[in-house]
Known about the structure:
alpha/beta; single chain; about 20% strand; two-stranded antiparallel ribbon; about 35% helix; eight-stranded mixed beta sheet
Amino acid sequence: MRVGILGTGDVGQTLGAGFAKLGHDVMMGSRDAANPKVREWAKKSGAHASAGTFADAAKFGEVVVLATLWSGTENALRLAGPDNLAGKVLIDATNPLDFSQGMPPRLAVGHTDSGGESVQRWAPRARVVKAFNTVGNAHMIDPQFPGGPPTMFIGGNDADAKKLVTQVSEAWGWEVADLGGIEASRYLEPMCMAWVIYGIRNGSWNHAFKLLRK
Ligand SMILES: NC(=O)c1ccc[n+]([C@@H]2O[C@H](COP(=O)([O-])OP(=O)(O)OC[C@H]3O[C@@H](n4cnc5c(N)ncnc54)[C@H](OP(=O)(O)O)[C@@H]3O)[C@@H](O)[C@H]2O)c1
């Protein structure tokens, strides 16, 4: 499968490497195709990895990951080109964080709308699945916790897209809980804040959510 990554930060690099490790061809996109961060990532990620612009990566991917700073996300999608994302699975790992008042950040949107729903409006023909927003990048691939596999909570409007994201998440060592449509982002994005605030209060970032069932 061909995977496009929109975002050159820790999340883009981690998920990009995770897809390459599964044997997929991955192109990482940036505002600037010559971005040294992307070139370096492509070099160290092996023969399956390449670099380009946001539009190049969106065109390349059958599946595309969105991992951009919230304040730049609408612009990144505009640069990627909504037509290049039409019909594609778009994994939205962003969180709508507003850092303008300092730490901890606030959610820039919520209750009756969400980042995930905004992304779906900005890329209306993409099959957006909110996922990978409730854990730090260090534990996204092959998470190792004494309590067993943590739970990746997801939401999106397209059942086949969620099936694909479930398969990929399971291949990376997660179990998956599907919370329904993309409006589930209204609950998944505050979950990110619970994860962040627990980390700040405890000075540790080695935690993940798990849904216990019986
Ligand atoms: N860090 C984590 O562990 C973690 C975990 C879960 C979810 N998240 C969420 O995942 C997303 C990515 O986080 P991150 O820490 O990997 O990276 P980040 O530093 O939040 O974002 C980096 C990316 O944002 C792009 N960007 C910044 N301003 C832009 C603008 N004005 N227009 C277009 N693009 C712009 C950058 O483009 P260039 O490449 O061109 O510079 C870069 O690709 C965030 O929404 C974050 O909240 C993060």
